[in-house]
Amino acid sequence: MRFPRRSKSGVRAGFSIVAFLCFAVAIPVVLRATSEATYTDTDFFIRYLVVLYAAFRVSVILWKDQVRPVAGVFWMFVYICLGVVPLAQLATGATTILAVQVDDSILYTATAITLLGCVSFDLAYHLKALHTVGGSFPVRTLRSMDTLRVFAFVAVTAGLAYVAQVGGVSVFFTSRQEASQALDQLSPDSGQAVRAIISAFGSVTCLVGLIFYIHALRVLRSSLNLLDASLILALVALNVIVNNPISNSRYWTLAVLFGLVMPLIASRKSSFNLAIIGGIVAAIFLFPLSDITRRPAGVSGVLQADSVWHMISTKDYDQFTMLANTIGFTQDAGLTWGNQFLGALLFWVPRVVWPTKPLDSGVEVGLWMSSSNVNLSSPLWAEAWINFGVVGVVVAFTVLGLMSRRLDSGFGAGTLSAGSVGYLGVAIFSGYMFILLRGSLLQSMGRLLVLALAMAFLSGTVKRKSAEDT
């Protein structure tokens, strides 16, 4: 007897339901059962709302036919950093040392702001009336192989210069702290702007060049020559050096991995679903272990891991805490009315030229907290709040939702066009969403600018193609 084959949609439906039950039910139940602290049911429920909302959205993305990389990253970030981690902190009673300024009322407000941003993003992403804004989707193709070769040569040169200026290959395999200190020695009088640009050119160009060559290998194998092979080997080696997880933050590591994996996944939905599930599992259970490479050997001591929940509560998943601290900062100092946003937008202006240039938002809040470490995150929710309050959160995440829908739809259209490279830019940007959402905005702008310039140089619009709005 032959049994009917299950449809792909049926398999995806079952997969998404299982994922929802794991993320929205099993993990919170385990947290509740292993609680080490005293808290009210109301406290637990309020934080659980973010977990439930994000878990539902992740499961829907897994269920749908389309590959949605940008929205996928957004809901992954919300689920992990603003959902599970705050719930784990409540259940364990543990938190990062940054929570010194936080009280219960501010924590409630932080959860409300988180949900406000999520709802604004969600409505904009699914608002069909706005999906046709901008017309049909541009199909971008590689200008030419010669253009890619020139870009790859520049990328290799920039990567080698970056390695030499920081102090050699060995610096990139010590620790994140030592690598950061070495980078700080570059143009110390010019502030963070020059260092951010040097770092961005050295790391982002090598990543983009390699991703485009992977595309060329798949589409234009017969056109590649010995020069291309040499450039590919050089790009692989430099990416191992400058973009390795030892000397880079876990968020940049996630961005690099997504940027490399998504072009290979393209329109294969099953592979995309595995990437989303794998990313969430890795972020909760594996990435906290990377803290062991944060400081030089002999400084960080033995990694404490009583439980995975205690580990993610006390390590540097500090986005929820920093959002709460930012709210506290604005209660004392008031909103900045766009000043912080202006500083991020004009990040490239050296401080010697603009002495009153705003400090990084994480630094501003860190100074208000009297923290000895002011290299702190400032999630996009905090950036929107510190500039314009509630209005800022609604507008910022509405714009982000519209842009994300546009990019995700463009990714789908691009993968259907032979030779198209537009989806490569969306793939790289989707990985970079981890950096944008984590913040700070000022620190993320350098690499974002280089990424935009690289895509503009490598690709050109040759025609326009309508994409189905699903």
Strand content: under 5%
The first-to-last residue Cα distance is 38 Å
Low-confidence stretches: 1-5, 297-303, 465-470
Count of individual helical segments: 17
Query: What's the overall average pLDDT, rounded?
Result: 83
The structural class is mainly alpha
* Rg calc: 22 Å
- Report the helical percentage: 55-70%
Counting DSSP E segments of at least 2 residues, the number of strands comes to 2
Question: Which geometry do the CA atoms define?
Answer: globular
How are the strands of the largest sheet arranged?
1-2
Largest sheet, in brief, is: 2 strands, antiparallel
Order of H and E elements: HHHHEHHHHHHHHHHHHHE
Structure description:
This protein is mainly alpha-helical and 470 residues long. 67% of the residues lie in helices and 3% in strands. It has helices spanning 8-33, 41-63, 69-92, 104-126, 145-166, 176-184, 192-219, 226-242, 250-265, 269-285, 308-314, 319-333, 339-345, 361-368, 380-415, 422-438, 441-458; strands at residues 137-142, 459-465. It has a two-stranded antiparallel ribbon with strand order 1-2. Helix 9 runs antiparallel to helix 16 (422-438). The two termini are 38 Å apart. The model is unreliable at 1-5, 297-303 and 465-470 (pLDDT under 50).
Short description:
This protein has helices at 8-33, 41-63, 69-92, 104-126, 145-166, 176-184, 192-219, 226-242, 250-265, 269-285, 308-314, 319-333, 339-345, 361-368, 380-415, 422-438, 441-458; strands at residues 137-142, 459-465. It has 470 residues and is mostly helical.
